[in-house]
Amino acid sequence: MTATATPPRQAQPGGRHPRPRRSRRPESGGRLTPGWLPWLLQAPALVVLGGLLLYPLYRVGVLAFEDFGLRELVTGQSSWVGLANFREVLTDPLLWKVALPNTVVFAAVNVTLTVTLGTLVALLLVRLGRWARGVLTSAIMVAWAMPAVTGTYVWVFLFDARDGAVMRALGALGLIDPAATNWFTERLPFYGIATLNVVHHGFPFVAVTVLAGLMTLPKDTLEAAALDGAGAWKRFWHVTVPLLKPVFAVVTILSTIWDFKVFTQIYLMPGGSGTNRDVLNLGTWSYITAISQNRYGLGAAIAVLLTLLLLVITLVYLRTLFKQDEL
């Protein structure tokens, strides 16, 4: 059996060798996938998403420019009012003094606390053994898996003005008078309880996500930093945080979106359904205006403003991260 030698390429003038021609067909001899085939395969999912997601968004956007109330809902006729709904919302003092501060401040505080607490828990879990880490991770995931309705009622029961366990304990210590104290009627205590509820429900996701990132960090880098004399804080701030910046970006963006849209935890608390207007946020204000007052156009305008505010914050944050070339 003799081997066939490949003939050498003939050099072109100037000593350069010609480049081999690329084959237009794959070496395996298979046919190229038609460009329309992936779209055809995804068509059922796209149709479902379009019907369930895009069409409601479109209807909310249209309602925001219409005078649509209970009469229009019955007759099926509506009138185009242009930007009148947006003007009414933007000139309402309730927006600037109550709903917008409650939404923005509440979201900022909750995102900060959720990411901080979740990171601290992840740093604790990564130091534990396999079994202890598995048990504790499963335990904290129960809080994340608990429905928001159930968790809200638990926190309401704990701080109930008459029979709440927290109120009884503080009353027994002489710190408050349970008969004259109701923290659900005042704005700051109301959102303090809501913050406990939202952070308790959201920190397990951050902890598990950051823990996954911590377990992938190169140990030699951390050991080299320790040998150079870097303490625990310097190793975390100058080594761990830069390496996990994409992870922190994801959990921060998701927490921001979730905390801006908090509705159930506010609406189900005493006074959150509209009886106490000092505790309204954009989500509950939009729902109460549309459903309780039957002003669907005005409620849709509030919802559109909330969506635009959320998009602006997310885009600014993503742009900042892209400038740092971290994503």
TrEMBL record:
Keywords: Cell membrane, Membrane, Transmembrane, Transmembrane helix, Transport. It is a multi-pass membrane protein. Its main location: membrane. This is Sugar ABC transporter permease. PROSITE patterns: ABC_TM1. The lineage of its organism: Bacteria, Bacillati, Actinomycetota, Actinomycetes, Propionibacteriales. Residues 100-317 form the ABC transmembrane type-1 domain. One of its GO terms (biological process) is transmembrane transport. GO terms for cellular component: plasma membrane. It comes from Nocardioides panacis. The chain crosses the membrane at residues 36-58, 104-126, 138-158, 190-215, 236-258, 296-318. It comes from the Bacteria. It is found in: Cell membrane. Residues 1-30 are annotated as: Disordered. PANTHER family: BLL4140 PROTEIN, DIACETYLCHITOBIOSE UPTAKE SYSTEM PERMEASE PROTEIN DASB. Belongs to the binding-protein-dependent transport system permease family.
